[in-house]
Design goal:
The chain is of the alpha+beta class. The protein has one domain: HIT-like (HIT family, subunit A, 2-Layer Sandwich), CATH 3.30.428. The protein is built from 3 helices and 5 strands, in the order αβββαββα. A 5-stranded antiparallel β-sheet has the order 1-2-3-5-4, covered by helices on one side. β1 and β2 form a beta hairpin. It is globular. The protein binds zinc ion (ZN). The site of zinc ion has 6 residues, from α1.
């Protein structure tokens, strides 16, 4: 499988909050999207169906664990789960808290920007995201 120029083969992709032998949970640098978390499979695979069924389950278990903490700590109106890999075809999931007043809602965060957010609003959500990161660093993920 091609690894050349693959960002997730050559970079962590952000601050590693928690990891096991097969995957990592990272906080990427996304100033516009506080609380956005990514779960990255360590090995270079492209699609969910490149994994064994038990590996798929283990991955989604962690995605849901992250979603649960994002909901509890960030209290968003909606969670967006996404896996594209069009730019970086190395299996990863985005867990994205969404609020009705965020800059893109109800578009996806890759869609059309619909409004500006005040610095106060964003700062408040970044403070919540810090709590989320701390909680993820403390959480246990099974193998
Ligand atoms: Zn890769």
């Amino acid at each position: 499988m091609e690894k050349i120029d693959c960002h997730f083969c050559t970079h962590d992709g952000g601050e590693i909050l928690v990891a096991n032998s097969v995957l990592r949970v990272i906080a990427p640098e996304e100033p516009e999207f506080p609380g956005l978390i990514r779960v990255v499979w360590h090995e270079h695979v492209v699609e969910m169906t490149d994994l064994e069924p038990s590996q798929r389950s283990a991955l989604m278990q962690v995605v849901c664990q992250v979603e649960d903490l994002v909901r509890k700590i960030m209290n968003p109106h909606k969670i967006n789960l996404a896996s594209f890999g069009n730019f970086v075809p190395h299996l990863h999931w985005h867990i994205i808290p969404r609020w009705q007043d965020d800059a893109f809602f109800p578009e996806s965060i890759w869609g059309k920007k619909l409004r500006d957010n005040s610095e106060d609003l964003l700062n408040g959500r970044h403070q919540q995201a810090e709590l989320l990161h701390a909680a993820l660093k403390e959480c246990f993920i099974s193998e």
